[in-house]
Amino acid sequence: MAGPRRRKVWIALAVAGVLGVVTLGVAYKLRGRIKLAFYQQLYSGPQPDEIEVPDGLVAELYTGEVEGARSMALGPDGVLFVGSRGAGNVYAVVDRDGDYAVDEVHVVLQGRPQPNGVAFHDGALYVAEPERIVRLPGILSRLADPPAPEVVYETFPTGAEHQWKYLAFGPDGWLYVSVGAPCNACEPGDERYATIIRMRPDGSDLEVYARGVRNSVGFTWHPTTGELWFTDNGRDWLGDDSPPDELDHAPTAGLDFGFPSCHGRDVADPEVEGPGCASFTAPARDLQPHGAHLGLRFYDHDALGERYRGGLFIAQHGSWNRSESVGYAVVFVPMLDGRPGEPEPFATGWLREPIAWGRPVDVQPLADGSLLVSDDGSGAIYRIRRAGEQARSARASRGRSRPRALASAAR
Ligand SMILES: [Ca+2]
Ligand SMILES: [Ca+2]
Known about the structure:
5-stranded mixed sheet, binds calcium ion, 3 helices
């Protein structure tokens, strides 16, 4: 009986060996995907501890109940409105007692296509979808039972790309909204494409404010000059290091920022003929190519450090069209005599090769000078504040004297 038994053992060993070799081979072939899946599991959901900030500051989770969190707008009474894209929701994130801890999160609009842009004006929440702008009147008293949206404007041209919109009220009381190009680089037909347009709060008197803007998903006004600053995302497929994203300055209406024939200061588009970059308004600052710079805000506080007062924080959504990933961070751009200086990393750590566990979209300072960062990758809003500082009453902060004027308000 010893012979047949030994033969069986040998056969079992051989089969096990073959299976082992096949398994190892398959695992080797799929190693990239296995590693990716491992990291995706490791970094699923909000990861405040992964965010790296300058010495003396900490990043903490403000709320993780905001799937796909995108653009933010601060309302009164500790209410923060947050748009989304694929999730189809608009949220109201509420800190009732001013202790900088979130007490309630409401979904005030849901099931909408890409409701990215949010703005608050005269008691109403305004929301930009690809084809229309709606408003929810009297929203603050109806967060748990929101009113039906009223249409403000509903005939935007929509294209295959860059349909989601950024929305904000200017200091002039007009409603500003971006209308992205429907393509990577092309002469779009409708003159509203590739612009920032503005209208009255009731949707009337629409006019193009800035043109030649490929895809802006963030703009803001300087707190003392009242002038418009915005980011613009550069085109794809011109290589890893070209063209730059842009930080643009539009102090007056009617400027043309060069798209589609000119990118950055001097990159002529290889596919779209134009009169040359000298004919257009150059960016105030070229930014990291493919960084996907979105929301930006001037910082008018000392809480994160005196050196940040007067500068700009900008969220980088991060690259997809580049051989090595860049962005996935918040950068700080100092302002020197009204001109933007060299951007520097401020908050990093969302990129953990081989994955990015999150993607910053927008930034929003709070009354105490802490900084919120929305992240549509991990469905969260993070708060960056000074380490060890006790939470302070928002009411007390609001009651203090107004922030002093920015030192760098020359332009
Ligand atoms: Ca609270
Ligand atoms: Ca430009």
